[in-house]
Design brief:
The complex is a heterodimer of chains A (94) and B (488).
Chain A: H1 13-43, E1 52-53, E2 56-57, H2 58-81
Antiparallel strand pairs in A: 1-2
Helix pairs in contact in A: 1-2
Chain B: H1 3-29, H2 33-39, H3 46-57, H4 60-73, H5 75-81, H6 90-94, H7 96-105, H8 111-119, H9 122-155, H10 159-207, H11 211-221, H12 237-249, H13 255-258, H14 267-298, H15 308-316, H16 319-357, H17 363-386, H18 392-416, H19 422-442, H20 453-469, H21 475-486
Classes of the chains: A mainly alpha (94), B mainly alpha (488).
Chain lengths: 94, 488
């Protein structure tokens, strides 16, 4: 494990933490855009003109079910490929 | 009394007790009572972390209040409920590793421990502790009312008797078991919430003759029920979107959620929790609110929103299954209340008493005092809930928004912005809570957005501006903080 004794140096784990926080923000923004776009993009026309998928109005099917699954998939991929495992405990105790 | 419904509930309560006793064994062997009682010695694994996050967050409003409103408003309210999806991944990503690492560096047990080390200001500590105690106390009272009403409607007992049963069930395991008992019971409760949601959703779809049938029933009654805009088209996109801030992103500022972000054992556990939490929160929110909407086609004409869930469960399911399903809202309420109780207790014991009244208390004294305070708080909430205020969902949202506006920036900016200082945090706390109360009283839902939006913006601006204006004054403290928190 790294000794982390560089003078004035920041804890190297923070770079990873900062990056992951930004990924979290990115995910939320994307989540919001998809949710908003599908819900109001498809749902703003008159109800008589709605399309239905599995019995549900298309706007609902996409914004609440497809987007939720898609975001979940993105979370899984981010965790798998972008998030890094770091030791959390104080290094000096080792 | 409807025994077929009551027996599963009793079994549920019984197993919760067993867990409480199991967890209390850890307390008798631990070397640091405070760490164990208020944080479970930072030993949570991924699954338990995810479940305790979701269960603490998912409350009476997710299972009783929310579906009741969805019954009234139609699919538009389900769309709104899905703004809660980020709670599964956002909180842990944003607070995530940084918070866990920093908390270990400074040996923080509570959220306020973190604020204390980060800002080194007595005023910030006291004000935060007070906001936690006041706001969470009222949130807790609202949840107790929900719990008691639920028992009342299921068993036919009087409200006070129901409240008493609820109070005793929660108090015993929280008092004797502390955080570990809360986290493990939350996990059981979360699992019950998950499967309860599944069963009731499927049951309601079948009773309604399939989704297609339900949709055509609803649109025959009022086509707007299946639009995103609500029956009277009052759900504007702006209003619904503003819930992203209240229940999606702002949750980062809730102390009961934030404290969980420093309770886990390893980053591997946190990674698993991110995924599990997203699955569970997405499924529960979608399933429960959708059930509320579907219920309208099965049982039309229910007047009181809060009774929709209990009634639909008893209508579409065999009695004993309904008992199991109705243990889900019970579990949701208990798992929220237990965390709040412990958090308020930690604010009193750790943040006020140990910081300023008796810093040199012995471990024995701390132990007795912690257990005593938790018990007294529980009894106080009980007394408040005996004469309850109405409309629990709004009461709940009030303390929710107030706390978010208060804490989101002192916590998030405190973690990621080195220039943030005590004056900024103080300004942020004051303007956050203050403007929330003012807006809520005089200009609710200003400009068509949920009340929380403007206070959160205002507290952000005050945090940044005041921190920048007072750079000189805090130079020495800031250097020390950088040394303690940021250095490798």
């Amino acid at each position: 494990m790294k000794k982390g004794k560089r003078k004035g140096g920041e804890d190297p784990r923070f770079r990873i933490a900062n990056r992951e926080a930004l990924i979290g923000v990115g995910l939320v923004l994307l989540n919001f855009a998809l949710w908003y776009g599908t819900a109001y993009g498809l749902g703003s026309k008159p109800v008589e003109d709605y399309h239905y998928i599995w019995g549900l109005p298309a706007w609902f099917f996409y914004s609440c079910i497809v987007v939720t699954l898609l975001v979940l998939l993105l979370v899984i991929l981010s965790v798998k490929y972008l998030y890094k495992e770091v030791p959390l405990d104080e290094e000096e105790n080792n | 009394m409807n025994w077929e419904v009551v027996i599963p509930l009793l079994i549920f309560l019984g197993s919760i007790f067993v867990v409480g006793f199991y967890a209390s064994r850890h307390l008798s062997v631990t070397s640091s009572f405070l760490h164990e009682y208020f944080l479970g010695s930072r030993e949570l694994g991924g699954f338990i972390l995810a479940m305790t996050m979701v269960a603490t967050y998912g409350s009476a409003s997710s299972f009783i209040g929310g579906p009741g409103v969805a019954y009234e408003m139609g699919l538009g309210w389900v769309l709104l409920a899905m703004t809660q999806l980020p709670t599964g991944y956002f909180v842990l990503s944003v607070l995530g590793k940084k918070f866990a690492i920093v908390a270990r560096k400074i040996k923080a047990v509570t959220l306020i421990d973190f604020l204390k080390e980060r800002y080194r200001s007595k005023a910030v500590v006291i004000l935060s502790a007070l906001s936690i105690i006041i706001f969470l106390f009222s949130a807790m009272a609202a949840q107790w009312v929900g719990g008691a009403r639920l028992i009342e409607s299921l068993t036919g007992l009087s409200y006070t008797a129901a409240l008493f049963i609820f109070a005793v069930s929660v108090l015993v395991y929280v008092i004797i078991g502390g955080f570990r008992a809360v986290a493990i019971t939350d996990t059981i409760q979360g699992v019950i919430m998950f499967f309860g949601t599944l069963v009731i959703l499927v049951g309601t779809v079948i009773a309604g003759g399939g989704i297609e049938n339900i949709m055509s029933d609803l649109s025959a009654e009022n086509p707007n029920l299946i639009s995103p805009y609500g029956p009277d088209r009052s759900l504007t996109p702006l209003y619904v979107s503003s819930f992203w801030l209240l229940v999606g992103v702002g949750v980062v500022g809730l102390p009961q959620v934030a404290v969980r972000a420093m309770s886990y054992k390893s980053s591997r556990g946190m990674h698993r929790a991110l995924i599990i939490g997203t699955v569970v929160v997405g499924f529960i929110m979608l399933g429960m609110h959708l059930t509320g909407v579907f219920a309208r086609a099965v049982l039309p004409g229910i007047e009181v929103g809060d009774t929709v869930m209990p009634r639909i469960a008893m209508e579409v399911l065999p009695a004993w299954v309904a008992g199991i399903v109705l243990a889900a809202p019970m579990a949701a309420i208990m798992s929220t209340v237990d965390s709040l109780l412990l958090l308020v207790s930690s604010a009193v014991v750790k943040d006020v008493y140990l910081n300023y009244v008796k810093p040199d208390a012995s471990d024995r004294t701390i132990k007795r005092f912690s257990i005593g305070v938790t018990a007294v708080l529980g009894i106080l909430v009980f007394l408040m809930a005996v004469n309850p205020p109405d409309l629990l969902i709004w009461l709940n949202l009030f303390s929710f928004g107030g706390l978010e506006a208060a804490f989101i920036w002192p916590v998030v900016m405190g973690l990621y912005w080195k220039k943030g200082n005590a004056s900024g945090a103080m300004a942020s706390l004051l303007t956050g809570v203050g403007s929330y109360i003012l807006f809520n009283t005089f200009l609710p839902n200003a400009f068509g957005m949920h009340t929380v939006v403007l206070p959160v913006l205002i507290s952000f601006v005050s945090y940044v501006l005041v921190s920048l204006l007072t750079v000189k004054r805090h130079e020495e403290t800031q250097a020390l903080v950088l040394e303690n928190m940021w250095k490798a």
